[in-house]
Amino acid sequence: MVSNRASVWAGRVRASAILVSGILLGSALASAPILAGAAAADTPATATFASPGVCATSSPIPFTLTVTVGSLTPLRSLFVAVPSGYTGVTPGAGATLVTYAGTDYLAVTGLDVASGSVAVSFIAVPPASGSATWIVEGETDAVGAPDGDVTSQNGDDILPVPQPTTTVYAGCRLAFTAEPASTALSGGSAPISSVPGGSYSAPVGVQVEDGSGNPVPVSTPVALTLSAHAALTGAGGTTSTTGAATFDTLANGQSGLNLTLGAQAPDYGSAIAAAVSTEFTIYDSGQTCTSGCSTSPATGFTVTAAGSGFLGASVNPFTLSCSALRFGLYPGIAGTTTLGFNYTGDGTKTVQLFVARSLLTTLKAKLLALHYLVCFTAPTSFRTIFGLNALRDPATSALLGQDYFTGLLPDCEDAGNRPPCVSGRTWTRAGLTVTIVAPAGDPFGR
Question: How is 392-404 classified by DSSP, letter by letter?
Answer without folding.
Answer: E-HHHHHHHTS--
